Amino acid sequence: LIYIPLLLICSCKNASNPGVYDKYSNVDLANEFIHAFYSFNRDTLKFILSHAEESQPSILYYQKWAECGNYEIIRKNDFIVKNDSILLCPITVKDDLIGALKIDFNVTDTFRLTITDGQIRSVKNSSNDPDIYYEAKAWIKQNRPELIEVPCKGIWEGGPTPCECVKAMIKGFAEFKALN
Q1: What is the pTM of this model?
Q2: Sign of the dihedral through C-alpha 39, 126, 152, 99
């Protein structure tokens, strides 16, 4: 009988804060995010981002882009804890975009996670793409816009065709490289 009130108190506490990741640290949650992203498990990623509604369209788009661009983790760098709610998660990857440019370089994607109350509230990402990446992108826009106009519509805003977009960019990068 002594344990019943204690059990009820614990149950009520969990019911008032039902986060699945309550028992995890922010670093653990960041690891779950990275695993879901790079295992290309959309449903799990969407669930992990359920409290980051504004970030969902671009991150889910980027996940599919990364899957279709054959992103492969080369190195999971140490996470950087900026404060009690912000973590930077740098992940070095090999991908078909850089492969099409035929350079010896692996991009590092850095995800900036904002976590409060055991939930991811925001995700922003950046990459250290080399200058030639931006040159190739500009070349495509100027010389082969028809290649990307339709498949890249709504890019990074939850557009409907991330696979087609990244494949068109890879094709354009290969054309750029063949001419340069």
Answers
A1: 0.83
A2: negative
